[in-house]
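Action item from last week, closing it out:
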Amino acid sequence: MEKVLKILKGRSNIVFFDLEGTQRTQEMIAIGAVSVSLNKDGSIKHIKPPFKRYVRSTTKVGEIVKNLTGIDDQLLRNEGRSFYDTMVEFKKYVGLKWKKSLFVTYGTNDLRILSQTIVHNLKSPLDICKQIQTNYWDFGGFINNYVKDDKYQTLSLIHLCELYDLALATPPHDPAVDAINLANVYNAFLTKQDITLREYKKVIVNNPKFPTSVRAVLKELKDGGNVTPELFEEEIKKEIK
């Protein structure tokens, strides 16, 4: 897709990543990522083994996050690393393509977690964080323009995997697993264009910004019917009765 290539701006490497944060302060407690090389059409050529680290936070995790992710304060004390050291390791994981990579998440919450973690850590790798913040793409916001549910609502990453008939990496709410699922959805968006086209037709038809008359005509077209000027006029007349 040309729009994806414009966003990539000639880059040949993408880093899909996911962050988990504390409940109250939204500090980073875990990071997962997969770095991938791309073909000329933007599809994935090669995926590196995933990167995953736990990160010590300055505040407690919180029960909701603990129950959702399985991460608690004891785990962070035993296996967590400092924010600074974690991000240095993350940069090493990406390697020589660090400055030429695009950093991709599903939604904007991950960047919020990154910003909050900088606030709560006096020793922060600001150069590394800035590289991510200035070379960042919310793929969730992008794909939401083309794929939604029947109620015109955003689909979760898990539901997108199901929609594109992808093998779902598990367990959920593991940052490395979520990064893998995101990479797979990105690739499916580009390579399974029949599904993307089918779903985009639904998005157009269900768009609440269109008048009912326009949606009715679009639905007729989507379902393979013939739309005549007379039919369109009849549908419009219903709007002004």
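Closing note: Strands lie at 13-21, 28-38, 44-47, 51-54, 102-105, 136-138.
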